[in-house]
Each structure stands twice: as structure tokens, then as C-alpha cells.
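mind reviewing this stuff:

——
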Amino acid sequence: MTAPRCLVVLAHPLPDSLCARLAGHALEAARRAGYDATLRDLHAEGFDPRMTAAERRGYGGAQAGSDVRSEARSKAGAGTQPGTPAPAATGNKAATDAQAMARTGTETETGTETGTQITAAPGIAPLRQELAAADLLVLVFPTWWAGFPALLKGWFDRIWAPGTAFHHGPGPGGMVAGLTRLSTLIAITPLGMPGWIDRLVLWRPQRRALRLGILRATAPRARLRWLTLHEAQTLAPTRLSRFERRITAEIARARSRSAPGTGD
């Protein structure tokens, strides 16, 4: 019987950070629980959080088309007088697209939707495949300015793409969930602020964004477990040990579940 898969994603630039320690702990806990676990250290591996123009155009749908049309209008209108017709397009579009991809070093992958062609920079396709194969996803990241670090936000933008995290459905903006294997997502984040500010003043903005803005559309059956380590700058060893035991317990609990749930 194949072991379930766990993907641990670390988004922190320092190899000796608290986040790095917690990611390593989560990786070992997942392996002890029986997962086939992989650690993806985004900074150490040189992951670029910037979405390419080819990737954005590959999203398809009404909004992407609007982006392309707006850009085309801007280019056509640049340097012309009002009322001057835009220059006519010349050449073969397929050839032009191929040349543009060659210049930017992009690759094309075929999504599960019929006819969907998704362009991505080299190395992105395997990251999308490992996300789609994950039964448990563990995200380890710092909370900076009450939000996700740019590295993790870029991972969402580039990896949670159509054909992987979701598929285009009927109607404007229609989405069909694509991460059907994912049963649990555990988010682990140290932050400096006290817990009462995070909960009562800010209302845990990242948790709301992940639960309502991302998981609801891409993996609605997955449980979200949110583990925050408040006031991490004054962390005592005993409190760190308790938090690591909590991580271990959550991973063991995820492993024991026989079916996805509806979120916490």
C-alpha cells in the first residue's frame, strides 16, 4: 500500500530561523507518522515568487483576457495621436507566441482540462505536480506586517494554477476545485504580536485569506489547522517544546483521519 504524501513548504530566508527549525520538526513528525514526506525550502532552492507574463496569460478566463486586451490597447496607443488607428498585427500568432516563449525560457504543460495549455517557467511544473499529489500540506512561514511573506504569496500565485489547484468552470469566474487529494492543511506561523491583537484586532487575516479565498475554491474538503506561535521574540524553551508537541499531535491526527473533512 502506498504511503500518503506530505509536502512541507518553508518560506523563510534564514537557514537557522525558528521557521526552519519548525519545518524540520514537522518533516520528521510526518515521517514518523507514516507519510512519504518532502521538504520544499523555497528560499534555499531559489524559488522566484514573481509570476511571469506567460504564466498570467496562461490562466485564461475573462479576467486574463481583459488583462491582455488592456495591455494591447496600451501598447497600441503608445506614441500615437488621438484618433490614429493602431498598427495592424502582422505575422503568424502561433509563431510569435513560440518566439516569445523561447526568449523568456518558458515551457508549456497540458492541464487536465480539455485543451488547456498552461505556460510556466522551467521547474514550475514539478512543483505543481507535488502539490496536486499531497494528502497533507504543511506551510511554515513567518507573519510579517500581518501578512504572508512575499515568497509564500508568490508560491500561491505560481503553483496554485489552473489545471492544478482549480479548473475553469462554466460562467464568468467559474472555478472547479482541483486539489481533490488534499485532506488537511496545517499552517505554522511564528509572529511577534500578542494573541489578542491577532485575534480581536486583526481577525487573523492570513487564516481568513487561506480558508475563504484559497481553500474554499481549490480544496473545499480539506481541514485547515492554524498553529500560531505568538510573541515569538520572547520564546522560552518550554513554550517552544509545547508548540512542537502540538505540531506532532496535529500531524498524527491528520494521519489518522480516513476521509477529508470540512475545515475547522
